[in-house]
Amino acid sequence: MSSEKYIGLDVHQATISIAVVDSQGKVVMESIPETKASTILEFFAGLRGSLFVTFEEGTWAAWLYDLLKPHVTEALVCNPRKLPLLKQGNKSDKIDARKLAERLTFPPPRRRRKLASIPPRSAEERRRRKEQPNGVPENLLAKMRPP
Asked: Structure pTM?
């Protein structure tokens, strides 16, 4: 039996809906912890095996990616605008998390296509963007300022 676990996260400011699915697509665990680093890491520390996690791009995506990447086998950030599966049927945080986790059970090449993966911004890129408003380098900004 495979020890792979596929985890879908529906992230919000106060809480995260988590669905954990095994390699056969059966939901083995669901949880709603608070959106706090220590709580999230505690949850993931309790899981064994190869962990594959996905969540939608949004306000918390870069922070969550940086937090989870060292603790999981693979982390995918997906583009919600390219995910018709989340727009179909009943809508709730629990259902969205489950749909994301189930979609991860596809083989890797198809998994990435189905989740419409987008690369998350790294901490370095976020820092660079803060230093360069609107992506314009400081030396060009200095030339554009009036004397």
From this structure: 0.70
CA distances from 91 to 31, 64, 72, 96, 112 (A): 17, 23, 27, 7, 23
Q: Which of 77, 69, 3, 1 is nearest to 40 (CA)?
A: 69
Which 3 state secondary structure label does DSSP give 127?
A: helix
CATH 3.30.420.140 is the classification of domain 5-121? yes
Which pLDDT score is estimated for 87? 58
Phi, psi values for residue 33, rounded to 5°: -80, 165
Q: Is the dihedral of CA 77, 81, 83, 89 positive or negative?
A: positive
- Please give the structure tokens belonging to residue 9: 């996260």
Q: What does the domain layout of the chain look like in residue ranges? A: 5-121
The tokens describing 64, both together, are 């969550």
Residue 98 · residue 88 · CB < 8 Å: no
Single out the residue of 43, 42, 37, 34 nearest to residue 15, CA to CA: 34
Top pLDDT among 128 and 99 is at 99
